[in-house]
Request: fold
Amino acid sequence: MSLFGILNIGSSALAVQQAALQVTGNNLANAADPNYAEETVEESPGIDAPSGPNGQLLGSGVSIDTIQRQVDLALQERLNGATSDSSSASTLQSWAGQIQSTFNALSGTADIGTQINTFFQDWSTLAGTPGSAGQQAVVIQDGQSLADSLNDLSGNLGTISTNLQQAISQDVQQVNQLTSQIATLNGQITAAQGSSSSQANSLLDQRDADLNQLSTLANVQTSTQPNGSVDVFLGGQALISGTSSQSLNASTYSNNGHIDSQVTFASGATATITSGEIGGMLQSQQLVDSTTDSVNSLASNLISAVNNIYSSGQGSEGYSTVTGSNAVLDPTQPLSSSASGLSFPVNAGSFTLTQTNSASGQPTQTTIYVNQNTTLTSLVNNLNGISGIQASVNNNGQLTIQSTDPDVTFSFSNDSSGVLSALGINTFFTGSNASSIGVNSQVASNPSLLASSSVDSASGTVVAGGNANAIGNLVNTPLSSLNGASIGDSYDSLIETIGSAAASATNNASTASTVQQSLQAQEQTLSGVSTDQEALNMIVEQRSYESAAEFISTINTMMQTLLTIT
Reply:
């Protein structure tokens, strides 16, 4: 090999060490960037060539094969999956905490459970002094407070549901932005790398960062193609293929009385999202729905249980007119059928309407019978058959009963059919669930109508405080509609269920976070930049560069000597 050939060896060493120093400097410059993968220079010796009088094979220097990112694709895939799981778990934990906080069960203020107990205790107190105007007002006031709290609870759960819908929609928009970016990067990467063995490292880092961010939103899987692009799948369907991406859509639909979010592909197919923020919010949506159902069931059973007893009671004065708070959709349909639109059941039975003349105090009782075929129209006809009573249906489908004699009032008792409660006649509560529950305005405006007394079905005599006592005992009375639980027990069970769900979400979030952090530590060990190691590399590369320069200087001196001789 000639001196010029030897000089080329030194030149290649200078070029390679200069490039190595540049890579080291780039590593140090990006050491604080968690999305940057450490780069290393992959070198290889030059091809040996015959040289010298005996044709010995001697080295021809050094060259750079590639600038290699330190990544493990299998580890990245596992980390992306763990990121999705951790994001889902922490999201569910956050929303479950919000749901739990709406109940205010552990705060210092009166929660709904306390209000339920107070309300029924008020009735028990009233049973001892049924004519007490002050205690009547307390019952009505605490009943309204309980109804207001249930209204607020329902409204808060509705707000959480609406916020979830908005958050899901925003995350879906973010998914679409990321998938578009990744598809664009696929094109840039394949164009930059071409058919060579070099890598577009900065573009690959950017794409990995986008894929990781996408994993925080949904459970995606990736497949790296030979040309360097990556395909992304969601629930078995291609979300990204090469430079093309399929967008997602967020919309709402009616789900068993709830308005819920759903995510679909542009093709219309449902996107199966089980983890990531979106997956966590879809799970949270189910928790909101089930909690809302439980709260509505509690309120509905509270309304029904109280009204079923209350509607057979009497206040210290009777009605001159009363209008039902519940509307019938079709007055020609049987009240016992769903076509009537009533929220509470009507059974075969009867109730008693008692008319009392204020002058003589003489009561007149009439029994009204109800069967499975009774319609609102037929009930009106039966009531109109009572002398001094006029019944009608207003434009809203509500039953109105009034006395035609100003000296005569009327009251109700012994309703074994549940029709009065179902129609909202002589009831304490109005509404059918937590969002609509309230105290009957007629009672609220005239506490004398509060039906604290009952009527003995055998003798027809009035039992002062009998109704109030029966209602007061409801708090611990097992109800078949609650599978044998009482109203108080039902609320306690609801609180336990919510607390258990929140605790489970917290535990799952902690476990998922631990797994994610472990994989992140493994990735940082492989891909993260060690400034100590880079400082050592820099010293080695500096010394190698200086040695190569000294080597070239020596060859230059030898060439000068040769030129002098010649």
